[in-house]
Amino acid sequence: MTSHECSRKLHPGIQLQDMGSFHIGGSHIQIKDKPIKEIDVNPNSGRRIIVDPNGTYHVGQIYVQYYIPQNVLSRYPLLLWHGGGMTGKTYETTPDGRPGWLNYFVRCGWKTYLSDAVERGRSGWCPAAQMYEEPPTLFNHTYIFQRFRLGRSFQEKTLFENSRFPIHAFEEYSMEFVPRWTSTSDQTVDAYCKLLERLGPSVIVAHSQGATLAFEVMEKKPELVKALVAVEPYAAGTPERISQIRHIPILWIFGDYTDEVPAWKEAKETATAYCEEFCRHNGDGQVLELDRIGIRGNSHMMMMEYNNFEIADLIEDWLIDHRLTRSL
Amino acid sequence: MTSHECSRKLHPGIQLQDMGSFHIGGSHIQIKDKPIKEIDVNPNSGRRIIVDPNGTYHVGQIYVQYYIPQNVLSRYPLLLWHGGGMTGKTYETTPDGRPGWLNYFVRCGWKTYLSDAVERGRSGWCPAAQMYEEPPTLFNHTYIFQRFRLGRSFQEKTLFENSRFPIHAFEEYSMEFVPRWTSTSDQTVDAYCKLLERLGPSVIVAHSQGATLAFEVMEKKPELVKALVAVEPYAAGTPERISQIRHIPILWIFGDYTDEVPAWKEAKETATAYCEEFCRHNGDGQVLELDRIGIRGNSHMMMMEYNNFEIADLIEDWLIDHRLTRSL
């Protein structure tokens, strides 16, 4: 099954009422007592300018793009939240140039909101602010190959058996990563809550760190989340707060090879234990292990892999079953 | 004239053949001899991971979004390049929520490519790389108010007379800025050249630093640039190389109040002197001073101001006159 063979009869083009972008969240900070800098903004022009790093800045905002289809079939906005070390690019074109989940959901009639977390991508960050004084981390090629389960060894470049990853486009994949701080999760949660307040009740599809943060967001704004699709979250919600969010249907999705990397084996166990507790509270939760339903070969980056539309179909089928949208 | 009153009969929606994104440019670097780090990727999960900053990274790439209209009227792709301290967001929705030049040109039938410069926005950067060891600069509120000619004093918040800037949305405007290094211009020029090599001959609309870099790009790839619209560049091309690029039509646009800020007065003088020399070489160049044709009140950020579509019309009229596209 290739990415284009999905169960939907998607229109070949993309018909939009509107598209655009905005920032939301964060607050002002004042920077004081830093030395004045003189910088050469265009080294080849030979002109230097004086820059005073002191003053007012806005920090903690997120960047959000929106795509409103001509024919909206969904009852609620769909929010796509990316994982750690990445940006909203995660859901755009795949590394090998096929359409990603953004185009899929827009073409299925979802009002889709694609964002960058705080300090990632177009959200921006303030070098002079205290919270960024620890250096950020950019994952290297070994990490994004092994940790995200493309294969056992980056040195040997051998993919796991049945891998669906477009490995010839590893270069593009590696270019999609951006530095991440570890001190900004709370700000991202705050900004996501503000986004929900602006848009009203919404469906969230979130990956990895984004999915972990989505549980915090649900616990803060349970009335504004209509469903969560958690794609390989690293952690789950707080068991003590399940009763507050048990009205929100939750679908977890895990790919193949989770036994190969202890962190993901543990992540799946955490999700499974939480889901059992969630269901004991009469929550509507399900952990979907792709390898157990015969879909082999997906890594942590399933939204980019050859069968990315097959997985998107599973997500949309579940959302249709929950009466959150209509079938195309 | 508001932004929606432009001379084009724009279709209310946006009909696309396709949209997507990719990265291009840059190269591998190897980082060695840095200490291993242990980081807490999800502070609230209590789980720490080992991160080795040594290894392979890709640096110097740019992020590019593309929007291909259903009915393409232009003969060439249109590349939108932003200015220093900003990202491609510059051309998306204006700070006060009106459509920007991206939507304008897509709706006029241009295959439009919107990018982030090297290390800006979704292009990403590598904290471990030498080239980023000098701290970057984020412009503060005073700078983005005064330097970019919204008004004389940020403290007093008084706009220049006739200002077209949506000042009630200053907050959103301030959130659009990202840190910038001064060491990455050459890499951005290289990535822009690679973009032209991929797309073939193209029209460039570039702002501020992006327009300054566009002159360098034209001098390197004169056969791949069909026209340049330089919106308030800080510097011009190299006079000695004019003969290589004199076949490329160039339109400069400057807004109002340039006499209020010496750097922009000087930038306009530089452009004017270069344009005269360009025309002496039989180049087709024009410096359009908006205030001299009765369009008062535009700052450095004219693509975001109330009359942004009026200015876009002037640009498109000039492109139509040069047979680079057909009228809608």
Task: Explain what the structure shows.
Two copies of one chain form a homodimer. The first copy, chain A, has 328 residues and is of the alpha/beta class. Chain A folds into two domains: 16-24 and 60-321, Alpha/Beta hydrolase fold, catalytic domain (Rossmann fold, 3-Layer(aba) Sandwich); 27-58, no CATH class. Chain A has helices at 101-107, 141-146, 170-175, 185-199, 209-220, 242-245, 262-280, 308-321; strands spanning 14-24, 27-31, 37-42, 47-51, 55-59, 62-69, 78-81, 112-116, 151-153, 158-159, 202-207, 225-231, 250-254, 285-289. The first copy, chain A, has an eight-stranded mixed β-sheet, with helices on both faces. A two-stranded antiparallel ribbon of chain A has the order 2-5. In chain A, strands 3-4 form a two-stranded antiparallel ribbon. In chain A, helix 4 crosses helix 5. The longest helix of chain A is centred in the C-terminal third of the chain and has 19 residues, at 262-280. The first copy, chain A, starts with 13 loop residues before the first strand and ends in a 7-residue tail after the last helix. At the A-B interface, strand 1, strand 3, strand 4, strand 5 and helix 2 of A face strand 1, strand 3, strand 4, strand 5 and helix 2 of B. Strand 1 of chain A pairs antiparallel with strand 1 of chain B, so a sheet runs across the interface.
